[in-house]
Structures are given as structure tokens and as C-alpha cells.
Amino acid sequence: MMFDVYLYVYDLSFGMARTLGSTFLGKHIEGIWHTSVVVHNKEYFYGGHGISCCPPGGTELRQPIRKVYMGQTKITENDLCQYLERLAVTQFRGGDYRLFDHNCNTFSNHLVGHLTSKQIPAYILDLPDEVASTPLGAALKPALNRLSAGLNNVPQFGLQQSSTKDTNNHSLEEIEHLFRPIFFDEPLPSDIQSHRIHLYWSTDGHNTNRADYAAAIAEAIVNEDSIERITPEHYCLLDLGSLETMDQCLAVCELFRLAIWRIPSLLTAMLTDPNGYLHHLAESKLPTSRPHEMLDLYASMAKLLCNCLGLSHNWPVSADQELHLSLAPVLHICLLLLDHENHRLKQDSNARGAIVLPEHRQIGLALAHNMALCSWLSCDEAMELTIYLIHLAVIQDKSYKQPIEAIYLMRAIYFLVVRFPVLADFARAYNLSGCLTAVLNEITDDASTVVEPARHESSPVHNDTSMDYLIVARLLDYLTVNAGDAV
Q1: CA contacts within 13 A on the Cβ side of 106
Q2: Tens digit of pLDDT for each residue in 470-482?
């Protein structure tokens, strides 16, 4: 009997090597490769703790960026285990691991050769020699050492979140005490008032019902004692794919954005609605293919989602996994508004590209801020979000160093690296400290007040320069004081 053999390929830089390779190396590279071998429905890999195995995709890196079919082997699982036991005490002991010349790829190449008499791709084997002597290699070495070694610690789980407190008073409890979610509570535009909302819908019976639903929500926003007028049948408005125009979609997002902020109990009812309209909002099919219109609608959806995440941050409902909003599609909207190259709108060959405006970016950063506070944010989502936020802080243009955007950005990064300490190594590797120092200098030189979207009245408003200084100083302190923990 023959058994399939696959090489799993991961990028330890999470796309940053591709973005920054030319800057640091003077040449384009696709990634910093980690590999493993999958055979007999197990994933085998090597790191600082020796040879380990787990179910395929079970390391903290989760799913690989590619799976390379290497052929078949006749070696049984029992014979393979005996062979690996010998390797574990001879050629591939944990203490012999060296990041650049005796690493996971060395092991994968050896094991693939034993199983199939083939070698793994040359672009993987040749990369260490190209990277080791460069500024990028030197900068990434602590982060990659820690992450590579850590793969063996708990291979069946993802990134471990930090304990409630650490030795330097950077804790989840302190974050929840000092910082609050961001809310968008600006009044409704005049054309979405209850007496004018019908103008967005035509006069046939089906649309008349929807217009009545929208008018009832607008009325409830003005008169909070009319909350009983909003029933589960009104939630169908959130099925944006069933609406006819962009104006209708924008009006619905604006109505629910302000309604749940004014009437928080409405959010609980919507999260428990068996039809799940709110749960599917971020995946809605939109009634337009024009990129600029789609961006505006995603921004409006993001403000509604921002309020949803903010209000559910410390609620008992947050402990019930069935009531959580799925964050994967929310993350897509967030990164789309931040102009992430892998999340941009797909363009028709004849269509003009959508331009991400400053207001889109600000809303995207606010959504990132509230996502970073979500207790159910997964390790995969945290990795993708953090790596791109660090990229924005260090590489992007000066617009991200304007006060309100910089503070949202720094807060989100701070929340994430405290919750997932291994991600702090990437911040150090890309010299985020230099960016923080520049921001501190700007805050010191500019005493102007930062005005944020107003918050729910039960949440204290922190919008002065001292709070701006606090978050940047705390992030810089965390990266500096905890730097000694890196491998």
C-alpha cells in the first residue's frame, strides 16, 4: 500500500518579507519559509524542542499558504515512528536546532528524501543563505527564533493569550479599565428621518413594508420608549442583498448603527434572532458593483459593526460563543478599508479602481481597535490584523501619524501584543519603537485635543492629549521592558 506525502509551506513573516524584502535585501523575496511534512494524516516538523507532530494544520501557524505534493511512500506509520524516534536522539535533537542552517526545512528535506527520494523545492532550501547576512534577517531573528521554537510547545493549539497580569503591569484588566471601545453615535442625516425614509423605497407592496420597517426604526431612535415597535421581522432589512439600491443599504446601516447605540437591548435581541440577519451582515451580497459605492457601503457597515462589537465587549453575551459575531468577514471589511492588497475589491477589467479615502481608513482603524478588544478574536485573525497594523505604523505614509488615526492604530497594536505576546516580536523586528518615539514627539509638540467619535454615556470619554501620550508610552514601554523575553 502506498501513502501520499505532502510538504506544508508557511510564511513566518506573514507577508511582510514580500512587502519589505526589496527595502532590506535589495531583492524581492516571497516569504520566510517554515515547512513540515504530512503523511499518514499527521504533520511532522522540527524546532527548538525537537521533532513533533500534530494533526495537519494543527500548529499555531494553522493553515499553510501552499501544500506541495511530493509523491508517495510505502513506509508504514509504525516504521516511520521508529525512524523518527532514532532521528530525535541523533540528527534532530532539540538542542541542535539552529534557525538558519539546521532548521525545520533541513528536517523536512531529510524526511521527504527518506520517504520519496526527492528534495523539497530549492527556493526554500536556498533562502537562509540569502537572508542570514542581511538587515532583514538580523531584525527578524529574535521573532523567528521564538516563533519557530514555540511551534513545539502546544502544537494542537493556537497562539496562547497572555495571563491576566504580567510582571510589568501590562494586563488585560488594565486595558479594560483604561480604554473603552469606539462608538459612532453621530445623528442621522436629515434624509433618513422617519418622515422622509419612505422616499428611498418604491410604492409596491413589498417595498412599502420595508419602508414602514425603516420608518419604525427611525421613530424608535427619536422616541426610545417605542422600542416595542421594533420586532424581529424588522431585522430582515439587514439582508442587504435583498434591497434594491445603495441608498437603501446605506440608510439601513445608519438606522441600525444609531438604534443599537441608543437602545442597547436591541443588540441582544438581534444577536439571539434565529434568522441571524446581523450575524450574516458582513457577508452580504451588495446591490452594486461600482467600487467607490461599495467602499462607502462597507464603511457604513463597519460603523454599525464597530458599535456591535463595542457594546458586546463586556456583556455576559460575550461568553456565549453561539452569539458571537463571526470576526473573519469583519476582518475582511476592516482590512479592505485599510487598503490591504489581499483584501481589495475585485475590479472589472474596464472599471476604475476604488480609492480608499481618509475617512474610510479612520473607520477601518476604529473597527480594528474594537476587534482587538474582542475576547473571541482567534490567533489567525490576530496575526493577520497585527502584522498589517505594524506595517501601517512603520511603512505607510504620514497620514497614519495624524493624531486620531495614530491613536486608534497604536491602541489596537497595544491591545493585540499584550494579548498575544509573541506578536510583540514582530513589532520589535520592524522597529516599531522608532515610530512610537516619533509619535511621542508629535504629541509633545502638538497640544491640540484629539476628538474621537462620541461614546456611549456609560463609557468615560478619553480624548485628551494625556490619553494619547499614555497609550503610545505604554506600548513603547511594553516593547522595551519585555524585549528580554524574546529568544
Answers
A1: 18
A2: 777 888 888 887 5
